[in-house]
Specification:
Chain A is mainly alpha-helical. Chain A is about 75% helix and about 0% strand. Chain B has a single domain, classed as Orthogonal Bundle (Helix Hairpins). Classes of the chains: A mainly alpha, B mainly alpha. At the A-B interface, helix 1, helix 2, helix 3, helix 4 and helix 6 of A face helix 1, helix 2 and helix 3 of B.
């Protein structure tokens, strides 16, 4: 049963990811990317990571994609109109991607597939992926990274404002 | 339970599609979208491994990657908007101010 859900979601994710690339108009790619993010959120649910699945829907499929759609509509981007490319660009892209895929799959095949019962004890295991355990870890072991991330967001916000400002 | 390797194969395919998109597309916004696709593939690998190793740390990493992705998109799109204002194009091949 779980395998069937996995296969459905995986096929949707791969197909929509391919459609992102092979669309001419950016707005359609953006909409297919939303579909891809939603299917990845479904995979997170399948992996019992409910909190991250919700975050995926809110942050990626919500905030980031709305932002990208805003920019596409604001700039009135036209589709690619067969601009001149570098020589052999398409051929080398395909070759490089196939090589990369070969190595990545080769590396994945060596992964141990059975789960090692390490890390959490059984009592914590029942709350795996929940908000409670997540928050506990975030505010104890990863407190410094959390603070640094907040500074990063502030800097990104200031940077976006500076770039968006009109030159004097 | 679905074997871990299936998740990793899916991750590899999604990442390769993202790389291919960045290599073949010349539109800056679509390239940013492909980068998001690659980040998502890595996130999926983190979550799958954290599930199979029963460690929560991978999920914390995913949380931070999401934060960085949000910051990256904000700055990247601001650069695209600024460039569009300057050169009226979003084609990265035509943006060669600093090349020569």
């Amino acid at each position: 049963m779980e395998l069937i859900f996995f296969l459905i979601l995986a096929v949707i994710a791969i197909l929509s990811a391919l459609l992102v690339i092979f669309q001419n108009k950016p707005i359609y790619s953006a909409l297919y990317l939303v579909l891809c993010f939603l299917s990845i959120a479904g995979l997170y649910f399948l992996l019992h990571s409910e909190f991250l699945a919700i975050m995926q829907i809110i942050i990626y499929a919500g905030a980031i994609m709305v932002f990208i759609l805003f920019v596409i509509m604001l700039l009135d981007l036209k589709g690619e109109k067969g601009t001149k490319r570098l020589r052999f660009q398409r051929l080398f892209s395909i070759l490089f991607t196939l090589l990369l895929l070969f190595f990545l799959i080769g590396a994945s095949a060596h992964m141990i597939s059975e789960s090692k019962k390490m890390g959490l004890n059984s009592e914590m295991l029942s709350s795996f992926g929940g908000v409670k355990l997540f928050g506990k870890l975030l505010f104890s072991d990863y407190l410094l990274s959390f603070e640094v991330a907040s500074v990063l967001l502030l800097v990104a916000m200031i940077g976006a404002v500076v770039f968006g400002k009109k030159r004097p | 339970m679905v074997p871990l390797s299936y998740y990793l194969y899916l991750t590899a395919i999604l990442f390769a599609i993202g790389v291919f998109g960045v290599l073949i597309k010349r539109n800056a916004v679509i390239m940013i979208m492909c980068i998001e696709l690659m980040l998502n593939a890595v996130n999926l690998a983190f979550v799958a491994l954290s599930r199979y190793l029963n460690l929560m740390d991978g999920q914390i990493f995913v949380f931070f990657i999401m934060t960085v992705a949000a910051a990256e998109v904000a700055v990247g799109l601001a650069i695209v908007v600024a460039l569009f204002r300057l050169k009226e194009t979003e084609d990265v091949d035509e943006i060669n101010l600093m090349k020569w």
